Amino acid sequence: MKFVKRGLFEETMKILAEHAYKIRYVPHEIIEDYNATYNVVFRGKIYYNKCCQEVKVPLNDIRISEMWRTYEKYIIFHELREIYYRANSFSRDEAHEKASQDGFYLWGKDVLFNKMISEIEEMDRRTARKRTKSQKEVKTNP
Asked: How far apart are the first and last CA of the chain?
């Protein structure tokens, strides 16, 4: 089982090496709604998301919030798996979910991985509250 898990990680990280994607850290505020984003060519097709368009991520870049630097291995793996699944005809949401499942498969018992999950969930809640508050302010201040 350990061999299979290590193989999944190694195969996924080969994508990074083979395509020479650049990993860049940016201030959290820039991508706080996403935590990470990408704009890459994989198997001859470009994959990106809305955040990538908003912050103008150059081609073959993966951007990660500087807040998550400690968890680089897990986040890069997740982004690469998401790209892999999108290239295999999954929707963005399905690819995200499958990439998350792969992370739990590999590191579900890893203390640092679980700390990251808790911190990201808490940050997502704060970001959602902040977004809701700013939307209310816009509606009440015409």
From this structure: 59
User: What does the angle CA 38 – CA 128 – CA 115 come to, to the nearest 5 degrees?
Assistant: 70
Q: What is the pLDDT of residues 5-22, one digit of tens each?
A: 889 999 999 999 999 999
8 class by beta-carbon count within 10 Å (0-12 exposed, 13-18 middle, 19+ buried): middle
Domain ranges (residues) in the chain? 2-140
To the question of pTM greater than 0.85 for the whole model, the response is yes
Dig out the tokens for 6 from the structure: 């290590």
Structure tokens at 21: 């994607």
List, in sequence order, every beta strand (DSSP E) within 27-114. Answer: 36-42, 45-48, 61-65
For residue 22, give the H/E element and its range. Answer: strand 22-26
Measure CA 119 to chain center.
Answer: 14
Q: What dihedral do alpha carbons 122, 127, 130, 136 form, nearest 10°? A: -120
Q: Is 122 helix (H, G, I), strand (E, B) or coil?
A: helix
